[in-house]
Amino acid sequence: SPGYPACRMIVIKYSMADGVQEDCHPHPGKLFHAKGFPRMAILPDNQKGNSVLASFIKAFRQRLIFTVGPSLSRGEEDCVTWNGIHHKTQLHDTGSGYGYPDMGYLDRVLEELKQNGVE
Question: Alpha-carbon torsion 76, 80, 85, 88, what sign?
């Protein structure tokens, strides 16, 4: 795994489908769109990476990984978007901050998860 040459990598695949917004969404009863799915994320397959994976699973079940709202990248409303818990979505950093190596990422994302009530 990039940045962690001694271990394999965990690949997470998030799949979402279009649906109808619920009361907790910005426009209840209106359709939302899940464009750009499936989305992939990458973690190193080590002790800390597996801890992050377990926390991501908890956060996903608590509906903290994605939200429905405006997509800044698409300029569209009522889209499924990332909800502020950062994921590494590229193997190699291209200057975007979404890739590896990033040796502080696992600690930062564990802190983000903790701030969202997930430990």
Answer: negative
